Amino acid sequence: MTAPLVILQPGNSVVTDLGRTKGPAFGLPVNGALDQFSAKAANILAGNPDNSPLLELTALDFRMRATTDLLIAVTGAPLDLTVGGRTCPQWEPVSVRAGETVAVRGIHTGLRAYIAVHGSFTVPALLGSCAPDTVVGFGLKLEEGTELPTRVATAPITQPHFGLPLFRLGLTRPAFSTHPVIDVTDGPDVDEFGDTADLLFTSQYTVSPRSNHIGLRLGGALPERQLSSEVLSRGVPVGAIEVPSRDELLVLHRGRGVTAGYPVLAVVTSRSLDTLAQARPGHTITFRKTTVAQATATHRAACLELDRLRSTIQTVFGLLGIGAGERWHELSPASGS
Amino acid sequence: MPAPSTLDIYESGDAALRVVARSGDADADWATVHSLAGWLATAGVDGVHGAVPTYDSVLVEFDPYLTSARQVRAFVLLAMRQLDFAGTGRRKPRRFDVPVVYGGSYGPDLERVAEQQGFTTAEVIARHTGKTYVIRCLGAPAGSPMMDGPEFPFPVPRLKDPRLSVPAGAVSVAGRQAVIAPAKAPGGWCVIGQTPLTVLDAAREPLVPYVPGDELRFRQIAEADFDSFAGQFLEAQP
Question: In terms of domain of life, where is this protein from (chain A) (predicted)?
């Protein structure tokens, strides 16, 4: 309906959402944004439903040009964001004027960043999700010159007092570190590893460059399975930690094959999966044992934080007339008649 | 009516439970976990994304903001009581016929498997084509039909060095299992042949034509006939 976004420098970017939750029952991984908290926050800050299609950038610089006025929000790992050459804040809504270039440079400390656009994009879906699936060969490929159809134009929001930030929403940004601590609960097969299971908590692990959205490969002291019996293929959760070889620990992420025949030593908590999504090759990881009850409480606290942000945004955008435009006009008496 | 099943339920992180059926009867356990997955899918339990049933277990995935491991465990037990009462109503299986070129570049591990089983390659092919397989579950990658393997004397070891790429249509065995690869993917199973049929069609839903419980037979074709099936989809027999 509106003029598209034009990709100038795709870097390593995809259009994704929160994932294909219907996929696993059909043998497809859930996929979707690897750092779910940052992805949800970007959509909320852009006034979108949490699950709207958005851009996920991994490691590399990225540029795109708006051909209409847009409202965007950039979250995830620390980076330098410029719009039309002006430095702009991350984790805040940002206005982009038609013709301006949005540039993301120097993603650091973490690995992935998210760009949400108010109104989102029109993109194809499979089983209710636009998330790419590299195995099935589904997903929009972003290349130089790719045009992403946006759905809503948003007139620039101007701040009369030059120099003051437009928004100050007070979201607690997640911490980013080159030595992240990752919470895990005991896996269903922890007993098969005997005493060696504790190695997971007394060692440090280094992220291998062979890590990706399917799983992170970690070098370090490896727990060893004490049995040699065969395991029938079964469903494995996102976050499952396995020891498939003598070289590396494998931590499955959202692109994981839904079934596997390796015993599950431990499972990364939902909240720590977001932290893991930001771990770069070379970063050092420490695992910490927690309980399902504690992990659930931590996850819910993060969700509540996002709920508060959503209600703040709805109030602010409501006052600015963003997102509720048509209804506002319907309710207003016709002027000048 | 099936005998009430014994279930073990394991925590699998804060967003999943692994439920394992342990009646001692593999067929009964398989029926139980698939009925349970079906019940959870149709019951529309708040916060439960879905269930991944395989042979004797089902992984139940949920959003820990909307529900909890404790609540989902209670739902699973409720489901089991209802299933024990109602029985596992099974639909009539459909049948699939899968033409396969065995050996050579189509099945690079055929000779290895023959040697390991103490068979000629012809005997391996005879065992592989001599059985009606029940599709036990849809697995990785891309909705692969996972089946109990052919009648071999020994389990088939997985490759020590998994291949980085196995083509779509690859027909493989490993352990006591058999499978067809719907899409190109890395793989550590022994590839003994390849079907020229297209199994996965990303342009339609469902992506693959079979469901767990359907039946499948392999049929040997000559290498010269491989191309004559080009572009044809795997379809259920009328």
Answer: Bacteria
The CATH number of the domain covering residues in A181-290 = 2.40.100.10
What is the C-alpha to C-alpha distance for residues B45 and A221, in angstroms, rounded to an integer?
Answer: 41
Q: What share of chain B is helix, strand, coil (3-state, %, to 5)?
A: 25, 30, 45
Partners of residue B82 on adjacent β-strands:
none
Residues of B in contact with A190 (CB under 8 A): none
Nearest by CB: B54 against A187, A233, A295 = A233
pLDDT of residue B86 exceeding 70, the answer is no
Residues of A in contact with B165 (CB under 8 A): none
B95/chain A closest Cα distance in angstroms = 19
- What are the domain boundaries of chain A? 5-159, 181-290
Residue B14 to residue A296, Cβ atoms within 8 A: yes
DSSP calls for A136-162: TTBSPPP-TT-EEPBS---PPP--SST
Per-residue pLDDT at A329 exceeds 70? no
- In this structure, the answer to whether residues B185 and B153 fall within a common structural domain is yes
Give the domain extent around B216.
95-229
Pair B105, B189 in one domain = yes
Measured distance between the N- and C-terminal CA atoms of chain B, rounded to whole angstroms: 30
Tell me the pLDDT tens digit for each residue of A213-238: 999 999 999 999 998 776 788 999 99
Tell me the per-residue pLDDT of A295-318, one tens digit each, with 9 for 90 and over.
Answer: 999 999 999 999 999 999 988 888
CATH number for the domain harbouring residue B24: 3.30.1360.40
CA distance B106 to chain A (A): 20
Query: Is B138 in the same domain as B32?
Result: no
Helix (H, G, I), strand (E, B) or coil at A300: helix
Residue range B2-48, pLDDT digits in tens: 445 689 999 999 999 999 999 889 899 999 999 999 888 888 888 99
The DSSP letter of residue B233 is B
- Put simply, the answer to whether A292 touches B14 (Cβ < 8 Å) is yes
ipTM of the complex: 0.90
In sign, the C-alpha dihedral spanning A189, A195, A196, A201 is positive
B103 and B221, same domain (yes or no): yes
User: A185-203, pLDDT tens digit by residue?
Assistant: 999 999 999 999 999 999 9
Asked whether the predicted pLDDT for residue A326 surpasses 90, the reply is no
Which of B9, B11, B12, B14 should be substituted to probe chain A, the one whose Cβ sees the most A Cβ atoms within 10 Å?
A: B14
